[in-house]
Amino acid sequence: MADSLQRGEERQRRLVADVAHELRTPLANLRGYLEALKDGVIEPDPELFASLHEEAVLQQRIVNDLQDLALAEAGTLAYHRTVIDMAEVLETTRAAHHAVAESAGVQLVTATPGPAQVHADPDRLRQVLGNLVTNAIRATSAGGSVTLSSAVDGTAVVVRVADTGTGIAPESLPYVFDRFWRADSARGRRTGGSGLGLSIARQIVTDHGGTITVASQLGVGTTFTITLPALRP
Q1: Which of 55, 65, 122, 213 shows the smallest number of beta carbons within 10 Å?
Q2: Are 226 and 177 a contacting pair, CB within 8 Å?
Q3: What's the pTM?
Q4: Whether the Cβ atoms of residue 132 and residue 97 lie closer than 8 Å to each other
């Protein structure tokens, strides 16, 4: 029990340190611009206000993701489970991200040979898949592709999100699901998300009795594999 409490306290300290590190610079930038506006150092214009608003929205996204992660890690994230077909969930995800993929010149396709039923929360699984697809599209150059597939393998449903993007360096793979990790250290929140999506995805999949893993090769692409308990007729 003492060890468990100590680990919990250590996780909490790391989370607080991570959050402070992640929010310090953007909040300082916001304050600097607002003080400059107040003092008349810079002139207000629509472009500046749009930029400040966008930054505020990004910070709100981080806070929302942190709330989801905290609830998930505490085991109190709400799930509304029902019988769903992962093939249908994948098609819904593809349709939701089709426009973004098309504008990036990336082909987004599904490969679902048949029904693959699980007992799960469809909204939470779409949240997981949406994060994976968004990351995959960002990592894939025009002319590449992102493939969503599902299949039944014995007592499990295996879902894959595979891209033909830049790939992840081997030394980075162990840290992919860590909080605030990003494949490109130069990629900020504006283009790389909050850095919490994969941590949340792993927790949601774990709460469904499944696993999520990643395999990648630089210059070839990345594949995330989700394994969930299959629902037998």
Answers
A1: 213
A2: no
A3: 0.74
A4: no
